Automatic annotation (TrEMBL):
InterPro entries associated with the record: CDO_1 (IPR010300), RmlC-like_jellyroll (IPR014710), RmlC_Cupin_sf (IPR011051)
Gene Ontology MF terms in the entry: iron ion binding; oxidoreductase activity, acting on single donors with incorporation of molecular oxygen, incorporation of two atoms of oxygen
Keywords assigned: Dioxygenase, Iron, Metal-binding, Oxidoreductase
Family: Belongs to the cysteine dioxygenase family.
Pfam family, one: CDO_I
Residues involved in Fe cation binding: 84, 86, 130
This protein's name: Cysteine dioxygenase type I
Organism the protein comes from: Labedaea rhizosphaerae
Amino acid sequence: MTAPAIDLHPALPTLPGLVRPERDLWKPRELRELTSTVAADLATPLLGLLRFTEPKRWWTRLALTDGVELWLLSWLPGQRTAPHDHGGASGSFTVLLGEVAESYRYPAGPVREQRHVTGASIGFGAGRAHQVRNESRERAATVHAYSPPLVPTREYVSLSDIPAEIP
Ligand SMILES: [Fe+2]
């Protein structure tokens, strides 16, 4: 019997209990609890890790297990993602610092807008596609989780280009 594969950021020694290496697939609600707990309990070391770069946004992987990947991302004012889906993975994010704006869409649904302030969390299933950006004048940072891990995202020119069924 082999131990579950796990890769952890060296600055965060308390992560193993939170990312539960024995767990395979995580549900959106569980991913949301994970990013919410990590952002709350590890705020000080995460803020110490943060970097801000341009033009390319900065990010670092916090953990990778067989079931989940966990990331810390930073957003200077004006920085944004392209519209994208998560390749069939479920996901979540929690705002660690500042605030981010999100345009999102479920297949065949309208494009909706949401603002996420410090401490806010969402979890989502494979059907949700979105674009995230920092529209504020302050720096922002977010903690993201995806399950299954290592699934490539797919980018679109516009959220209205997203197919009715996400393969
Ligand atoms: Fe995303």
